[in-house]
From TrEMBL:
Protein name per its UniProtKB record: Solute-binding protein family 3/N-terminal domain-containing protein
Coiled coil spans: none
Origin superkingdom: Bacteria
Species name: Pseudoalteromonas rubra
One Pfam assignment: SBP_bac_3
Domain Solute-binding protein family 3/N-terminal intervals: 28-251
Length: 254
């Protein structure tokens, strides 16, 4: 097939997927995001990296939707019951759902509050430490066996609370994306509510899937297919990276 026909074919496929997405779901969609994890998701402003990436991808498809901000566990239940149409930033753990191509990644670290020389050679070594983690981290990082019955392993739906409890000595080690931690430390430093010590031991988690990718989950496969087409275009044009860089640079300036 001649090269001159390839752009036309790509345009036809994209147009078809847009038409399919309108035909499959003409009503207003209900889209759920997790509770605030600035700069990725900020419930207060209704924006953030993941919110804007979804907005731009869905906008290309002409989707109309309303947003909810709920805990990860509630988001999973709502999608399973069909009470929402789309869940943003999901792991691919639940059968019966339709997942997008990789949507957003987090680079997760283990950071020790009292040991600048902190070393972590394997995930199993986390069992030696008290830990503050995000909600569902044991599932995302395959820690279930390591932390089973571990009373000093805590998960938090609100990552602001996770950071505060770690700073206040509730646990020695926090498991968190470094962009998220910088944002929360900046916010807390402005409020002067917590003493911040920069002499921490920081180790990239020795986990096979790090950075950890999350996906957009759908109840309807055709909506997922249309979304994938639009998201792929966003990535290929460089717009995806522009959005990420804009928010990350804004976070570093604050």
């Amino acid at each position: 097939m001649g090269k001159r026909f390839k752009p036309l074919i790509a345009l036809v496929i994209t147009s078809y997927m847009v038409l399919v997405s309108h035909a499959v779901w003409a009503k207003e969609l209900v889209v759920a995001f997790g509770l605030s994890r600035p700069p990725y998701v900020d419930e207060r402003s209704g924006s953030g990296i993941s919110v804007e990436l979804f907005k731009e991808t869905a906008g290309e498809l002409g989707w109309q939707y309303k947003t909810l901000f709920v805990s990860i566990k509630r988001m999973e239940r709502l999608l399973e019951r069909g009470e929402i149409d789309v869940a943003v930033e999901m792991s691919r753990a639940q059968p019966g759902l339709h997942y997008s191509i990789p949507f957003i990644s987090y680079s997760n670290y283990a950071i020790h509050s009292r040991n600048p020389g902190f070393v972590l050679n394997s995930m199993q070594e986390l069992a030696r430490h008290s830990i503050c983690a995000w909600q569902n981290a044991s599932e995302h990082l395959e820690l279930s066996e390591i932390v089973a019955g571990k009373e000093d392993y805590l998960e938090f739906p609100q990552q602001r609370n996770q950071v505060i409890e770690w700073l206040n000595g509730k646990c020695d080690v926090i498991l968190i994306d470094d962009t998220l931690l910088r944002w929360h430390l900046s916010e807390l430093n402005r409020s002067s509510s917590v003493y911040i010590n920069n002499q921490w031991g920081k180790v990239l988690l020795p986990f096979e899937n790090n950075p950890l990718w999350f996906y957009v989950a759908f109840k309807d496969a055709q909506l997922r297919d249309a979304f994938n087409t639009s998201l792929t275009k966003l990535i290929q044009t460089g717009r995806y990276q522009q959005i990420r860089e804009y928010w990350q640079s804004a976070e570093q300036k604050e």
